[in-house]
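Researcher: Next sequence.
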Amino acid sequence: MDAYKILEIKKSVFEDNDRRADLLRKELKERRTFLLNLMSSPGSGKTTTVLRTIETLRNEMTIGILEADIDSDVDARAVAQTGVRVIQLHTGGMCHLDAEMTRQGLDGLGTNGLGFVILENVGNLVCPAEFDTGASKNAMILSVPEGDDKPLKYPLMFSIADVLLINKIDAMEFFNFNLEVVRERVKKLNPNIKIIPISAKTGQGIDEWVEWLRTEVRHWNEG
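Model: Next structure:
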């Protein structure tokens, strides 16, 4: 008989996080608070997209924002200017948020009276995809300058997203980016994903994005 045991740490960590995420999701459902986990690489336009979303929905929903970064409060200061409730989360060097960190952020933000909360996750196409935050839905942004090969390089991120926003389409002519190739590659990984081309800068495609959100929030509250 072996004098020691083997513990699969990564598996244990993920299983514990999944339990915490499921519990948080259940609690948010009971509170009728819809939590969107927004992920992307740095510089893809997450914060600009968040600001556009706030601008469009602020008269329909009570909105709160969780801004997650390794450091700085640049994004939280930008969001605060809209007047919505916002909190800045510093991860202490970690490249993602997990369910417990998300819970701490929500507790700090205070969800009373909030029907819609956006978690702007740390800019990264790897780590955030591995950890369930307890969100109602997962969204990701792929910006045109990043290239159309990203679904091949980071398949997990595209596999776990419920909706993909292809941002900066106003700059399409300046980059070697094939929208149809991206659609094909993403659909192979995730046949049920919703793909919405947008320009957070100009507002193109934002109406479709916001309508998707309205539908998902309504289903969340009715289910």
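Model: The radius of gyration is 18 Å. The mean pLDDT is 93.
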